[in-house]
Inverse folding.
């Protein structure tokens, strides 16, 4: 590789130092106090965007562990977007794909970060801009239910929606539904494993409500789906009232 022009080499050295002052040497000719101000400005800006999305994670980690995590992100991650709004997306990718768990950090860290991030992801989603033709009052058992496209059906090993400071966190599986309602508010709902699986079977609009119930009954080892069908009918109607189910496809 050809040697970089001096001005580019200087730019790389400058950027490397403000990203990671501990490891990258300060470029010659720049006062230490000035470089420290640049490094602090970069860190503070990045942290402010992350704090807006991950307030609970920050509280659970405490100041020192949180700062170490943010500094590792700034130093090691190479973002693929220039948009400030997508900094939390990049942070989550860093945690999932690059960060190596360190002793003293909780096992639920990744799940809690994902849970906090999903609210932002759905708040700005445009997946509902183009919907197929559907009947808002259509039959949800005989017809093919249409689910709200701005929705996430999630399963976690930890009850991330209940994690708070001074509360003992134990590994208890949680099924959570996160969706954006007609008023553009992101809402959360705890589901049973059966309800979560029913909605999963209905994703894509390929099955009627009845077909989904029959398959779910088979998975549960129930020969007669009648009881489950009664549950599904009432449950899907409840989900329609809050905007999780939009109706049935035409």
């Amino acid at each position: 590789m050809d040697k970089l022009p001096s001005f580019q080499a200087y730019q790389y050295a400058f950027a490397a130092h403000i990203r990671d002052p501990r490891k990258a040497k300060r470029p010659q000719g720049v006062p230490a106090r000035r470089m420290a101000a640049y490094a602090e400005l970069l860190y503070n800006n990045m942290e402010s965007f992350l704090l807006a999305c991950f307030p609970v994670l920050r509280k659970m980690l405490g100041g020192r562990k949180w700062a170490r995590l943010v500094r590792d992100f700034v130093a090691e991650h190479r973002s693929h977007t220039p948009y400030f709004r997508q900094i939390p997306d990049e942070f989550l990718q860093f945690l999932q794909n690059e960060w190596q768990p360190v002793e003293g950090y909780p096992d639920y860290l990744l799940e809690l970060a994902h849970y906090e991030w999903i609210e932002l992801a759905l708040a700005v989603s445009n997946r509902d801009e183009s919907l197929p033709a559907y009947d808002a009052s259509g039959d949800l058992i005989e017809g093919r239910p249409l689910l709200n496209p701005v929705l996430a059906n999630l399963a976690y090993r930890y009850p991330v929606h209940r994690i708070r400071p001074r509360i003992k966190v134990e590994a208890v599986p949680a099924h959570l539904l996160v969706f954006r309602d007609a008023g553009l508010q992101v809402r959360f709902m705890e589901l049973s494993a059966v309800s979560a699986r029913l909605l999963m079977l209905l994703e894509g609009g390929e099955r009627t409500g009845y077909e989904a119930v029959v398959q779910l009954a088979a998975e549960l080892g129930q020969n007669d789906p009648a009881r489950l069908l009664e549950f599904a009918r009432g449950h899907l109607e409840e989900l329609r009232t809050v905007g999780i189910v939009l109706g049935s496809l035409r």
Summary: The mean pLDDT is 93. The longest helix spans residues 32-53. Strands lie at 134-135, 145-147, 151-156, 174-180, 186-191, 245-249. The first strand starts at residue 134 and ends at 135.
